[in-house]
Every structure is written in structure tokens, then in C-alpha cells.
Amino acid sequence: MSNVPPRAPLVPPHDLLHAVAVATGTPMAYLQWPGGRCIWATATYARLLEMPSQELLDKAPQSYLSPCTWNEWKCELERLADSPQPGTRLQTPLRFARQQAVPTQLVADVQHGAVRAIVVIPLQDLSHTDALQMVQDSDTRLQRYAHATREAIIFFRQGRVFDANPAAIALTGYPLHQLLDRPVLHLLPHVLRAEAQSLIDQGTEHAHETRLLHHGGQELDVEIAVHLLPEDGDTYGMLVLNDITERKRAEAEVYFLANHDPLTRLPNRQGLMQQLRQVLLQAERTQQHIAVLYVDLDRFKDVNDSLGHDAGDKLLIDAARRMRSKVHPDDLVARLGADEYVVVLASPLTACQPDCILRELRFALNKPYVLPKEAVNLPASIGVSIYPEDGSTAEELMLNASAAMEAAKSLGHGHLQYYNAHLQVRPSRLLVQDRLLREAVANDQGLVLHFQPLWNLATNRLEGFEALVRWQHPQRGLLPPAEFIGFAEARGLVSLVDRWVMRAACKQLRAWRDAGLPPVVVAVNMSATEFNQRTLVEEVQLVLADTGIDPQWLEIELTETTLMKQSEHVLHTLQALRQLGVRLSIDDFGTGYSSLAYLKRYPLDKIKIDRSFVKDTPQDADDVSLIQAIIQMGRSLNLRTVAEGVETKEQWDMLQAMHCDLIQGYYLARPMAAEEALRWQQHRCQMSAPQ
């Protein structure tokens, strides 16, 4: 997305012809065909019908013309539509208001061999001289419009450039005299010209992404739209280009972050599984062995607790660097989260491997980590599975390597264990974990909610809370979501957890209301699994009825992954929730990758900018640009934006200057238990933002 301040569009963005008509002051209407429904009309056109232009929208002529007059119009419109050639035109007298006949030009807008619309241009009672003067004035106005807009506009006739505005000269790098009479297709790389020829010949209904060949030889990412504008005996075109280099860069970064750990820049679990599956396909073809190493840094939690998270982050980055330095460039190193890594020996194994590499890895990982306050030693427990002996799929190899790592940890710190069929450590632990989590949900004991405030920057007041689930594990203590939600998804328990969270959040909201606090929004997260359930809407209705909460105070946060499925069932579910009055937002926006078309398709209220983009601001200029782009995109689509992970006053001030709507993060408050959140509200509801 281009990092420029947004400007108010002059016209509906889907039709540049409207912009030209408005800019030139020409009486003109664009009627969908068949049927004649008015897509747009200029004010000068509407005056001939003695109606405001807004009243013409979506109406067919028969709704505002007399039956006799409509029959005359229909006859002429059908006569034009019978000759579906680009630029086909017909001049005929048509009656408007007061029954006066006005010489009118009808122009067919032809797409793919069929008339999709008819442009109606009343000429009124103009003499030849007046008409010529109007055309000259229109050309002058059009040139002024072309010079005023930031969009690059190139005018062409018969495939060759005859004019261009200053923005086009700046974008292409060509002086105007070198653009004139150049084939317009020569502005595109050679391999794209055949595909673009049909766009130049027929025009475009929607903008297309392609590449522009700059005068200096480099290729630029651009979005193009081609509009064909008929004139006497000919047709000339307008090629409208927008530089989308920044947007493509941002999309590439979003895609990278969806598949990589933002701290170490290594592949995350999703990225690893994608690459591991490709490695196994190659290994199957070549009859090659593959080793999967599951690495856990022992006692890492002690570093975080005693030296702080910054020291822990430095150690994790150093560990990633050490592992990467000891393997072949074709091998994979990934970070799954917390202190767990996976190394995949994907290059052909020699006679001494993987033992030689394991020895090198263990030696590198056992060396002291030099941190700001002191040096620490963290031995690593490593589990190993081998393809094809220990599994034929990525999932089997990962599960078995993890089981071997658990067995290694049971022997003490810093041990190595190869998988074998007798290892039962992980399966038994999984069964116990499964039983404990089911009991916590069923008995309403063990799961607890913590609440993190969301602050409205415009009103400078508390707007709501995000409800975050915690598990009071009987052996491991209070666990954050990252420690058990992935497990719940894998075991089919996440739906039970989601429903518990929604009900518990609404009950807590009711308790706060009963305590005399003003109403606030409470947001709950729901997994993609929930939106495939037929009973979700009914469950939400039941919870709201049971707790007496108005739907407007419940917000459901869903992931980009849920929307990227483009499921009709998901769409219908979201529409039903929206009709119910429940608010909808996208959580961790930017960590999934897809076309942003779903932002228009789905009935959303908010997008939450992921904390990984906020973390290094305002120092990281790339992240600042990306956040600015997301906020601008949200505003253009009438979506509110929420910035997660705000930890400093500098970040707060930056986001406020960018007109971000809501703030969430440690600078305002950490997640807190319900009782503490009640006191926090009582203290904060009469106060402004932290200083």
C-alpha cells in the first residue's frame, strides 16, 4: 500500500469515466444494460430531468419518464445495443423533462462482446460552434484534472501515447517527448505485453496488478485501469496507473510474518510444516533419509524470570544463530515458540550423519550465552526421528521427535534421545493433559479469565476489555493461552474452551453492570473451528439471553485464517451475528496472508494490528509505514483499527498522531483478574490516559 496521505475520492472509484464527466461538467449518465438502471449521473444531466442526481441512482428510466417517453427511449437504447462493438454510438433526439426533445449521443460500453452499459450524453440545443467550444473547454478541464491528480494518467490513441500527466512522467521516468507516439504496451515488460493487449483493446472493469518498465530499466509494481473514451470516428484511451510498490512490499512482509517467527526470523510451525512436506516429497522421489531434531532449551524460563524478557529474547536469537551456523544451507531451522526449535536435516545424509551434526549442535548450544548482566549455560534436550523409519508424514515425524525429546528431558538436562516404538512419554502426557483440560471446562474449575483494557484515543476513555483465558494447571500453575490453546485445537477441545470463554465473559460483564459500572465492550476470541459449527449463532443468542447482556457489548474476534477460507457458511454466520447486533473484529491482523478483498466482503467492525508490527516502533521505519498503511486502509473501508502491544509513551503518541482508533498494551495495563479489572475501572473511568 502506498504510504501517502489519503485523499477524498472525487467519484466512485469503480468508474473513472464518472470522474471525467464531473471534471468536465458534461451532462452524462451511465445506465446499466439491459434494464437501464442508473449507475451514476452528473448534476447537469439530472437538471434536464428536473431531479437531484442522487434520486436517479439505481432507478430505471421507466420509473421517472412517462410511458410514452420511455417507449421512445427503449427503442433507441435497444437499437444501439443490437450492435455490440466497442465505441458504437448513436445520435438521436430524446425527450427529458417538460417533454422537450434534446439531441442526445448514446455510446455503448462493450465488454467481452456484449453491451454492459450505455452512456447517455445530452447535447442540448447547441450550435456547431457551441459544441466545438464545449469540447475545447472539456479538453481544458480534463487536462487540469489530469494534472491535479496523483494518479499517473497516460492518454493513447490506436495503441500509441499522445499525452501524459506529470504524475505519469514521474512514475515512468520518461520525459514527455520520449513518451509521445511510443506504443503504450512498450511501457510494460515484454513477457506481459500479450496479456495486456486485450486490456488495451477492450478496457478494464476493475484495476489489474502488473509491472511497469521504468525508463531506467527497473520494473515497478503498479495497478492499472484502462478506460476507453469514444470520440468522433475513433476511440482514445486513458491508462491510469498507481504505484503499489509499498503495498506489495507490505504484503510480502505480511506473508513472511505469517510463516516466520518475528523474533528470530526463522520459520514458525506453519512455515516449517509447509517446507517439511516439500522436503518429504523430494525424499520419497530420491529414496533419501531425513532427520527431524526437536530441540528444547532447558531452564529457559529461569532466564526470563531472573534476567527479564529482553535477555531471554537475546538468548533465543543467539540459539537460532548457533543452530543455523551448524547445518547445511538446504537444511531447515525453525522456532515453534517459547524455547522449542526444530532442525530438519534435509540435505543428503552422509555416513556419519546425523550423529556428527548432532555432536556439533550440542557443543554449540552448550556454550555459555553472554547476556547483558551475566553469562548463562542452558543445555539442550534433543529428540530425533528419522524418515522413513519413524514416520512417513510431517505430522508423524514431528510427533515422534517430540516424544523422543520428552524422553530425553526425563533423563535430566542436556540429553539426546532417538525415537523408538517403545517410547510412551508423550502419548501418556497427552492423555493426561486431555483429561485435565476437559475436566477444567466441564466442572467450570481451572479456567480463568484475565481482562486487558482497550482505550479509545478519540474520546480518551476506556472503551472495553479483551477477555484472555488462562488455565490454572494442577501441576504447572497458571498457563497463558500459548501453552494450551494449540493443544486444545489438536485434540478437538478448542470449541469447548471458546464457548466457556464467551459465557464467562458475559457473566463477568453482567457482574460489573450490577456493581454500578458503566457498560463496556468485552471482546472474546473464537477459533476457526467455531465458525464451522451450525449452532454458533444460537449459542451466542442463548448466552446473551441467559446473562441479560445487550449484543452490542459483545465483540467476537476471529483470525484472518478463518476469513481466508472464503466459506459461504462463514459469511452467513458472520452476517447472522452482525444482524444480531454482535460486533466483529479481526485479531492479529497482518499475521495471515490473503487478498484483502475479504475486508470488503465480510461485515467487520475492527482490525487489530498485530503486536509484532508495533514492537519496534517508532524506531523501525518499515513497521511505522506498514502500520500507517493498515490504518489508512481501515479508514477507507470504514473499519476501526486497534493497535496491540503498545508498551511505551512514544508508541502511544505515534499511534495517536496516525489516528489509530484504539490502544491495547502494557503501557495502559497488563491483563488482570476480574476483581482487579473492577477496581481498575472504578479508578480509571474518571481519569484520562496514562502519562
- How many strand units? 27
Structural class: alpha+beta
Low-confidence stretches: 1-15, 126-132
| Shape summary | globular
How far apart are the first and last residues' alpha carbons, in Å? 33 Å
Helix amount, in percent? Answer: 40-55%
Average pLDDT level: 82
The radius of gyration computed from the alpha-carbon positions, rounded to a whole number of angstroms, is 32 Å
The number of distinct helices, counting runs of at least 4 residues, comes to 25
- Proportion of residues in extended strands: 15-25%
Q: Could you give a short account of the major beta sheet?
A: 8 strands, mixed, barrel
Strand order of the largest sheet: 18-19-21-22-23-24-25-26
Task: Explain this structure.
The structure is a single chain. By secondary structure, the chain is an alpha+beta fold. The chain contains 25 helices and 27 strands. Helix 21 links the parallel strand 23 (583-589) and strand 24. The protein is globular and about 95 Å long. Mean pLDDT is 82; it is low at 1-15 and 126-132.
